[in-house]
């Protein structure tokens, strides 16, 4: 699938053991691959730094709510480093981005949990961990191009290249909400991506939210037109349909400019509709 510099970038074949492996064993190996890669790169220091800020914030203020605060880690998985250090991990990102995201989440959670234990704090809930990953530097790859007209949608990583024709104003995505039971149960609950009141596990009554502890992130919805819509505007009998992409704040560093040309790497997240792609990286062409 990937070729460049006269080298096949993904010369990988599954062994018999990998083919017959159970899902749990597969998940364990994937997490070990992620952990090994993190330890061989600067990502481990980023993870430790985020956990260290959590510990420092709690020790400074000693507020109970600080133990419910999020741990946000931004991790850039650089294509060339993956190719050099872990081709199997690169293959996982390309073929199973959702599975890769889960492996990253549980691996980072384990590393953060170990550091909190060393600092004398109880482990956080995994819902408090937000590992924002990006795949940076993936070159333009024809085999990954998203072409809905072919009636063939990739379930793995995909690429969209084209012109930014429209985008929405910044919208807020809920990362984490904290809830408490006001009926005397003294129970807390953590939710992600939802503002619906959960039911207390003790008395089954709707819980109340700590509004000040809500954590959000901004995103845009982009409409990307193919380059052919600009290059041949007078072609008849042809309808140029924009591709919809959700672009979260952590997935790009460059500014958005109408009419600009961009290469977007992303995937279809669970529940996505109308060909909406979840971007994991955007860069200017």
Question: Would you give an account of this structure?
Answer:
By secondary structure, this protein is of the alpha+beta class. It is built from seven helices and twelve strands. The chain has a five-stranded mixed barrel. It has a two-stranded antiparallel sheet with strand order 1-2. The two termini are 21 Å apart. The N terminus is likely disordered.
Give short descriptive properties of this protein:
disordered N terminus; two-stranded antiparallel sheet; 285 residues
Number of helices: 7
Ranges with pLDDT <50 over ≥5 residues?
1-21
User: Cα distance, first to last residue?
Assistant: 21 Å
Shape label: globular
Protein name: MEI-217
Quick rundown:
This protein has a domain at 1-139. Helices cover 29% and strands 27% of the residues.
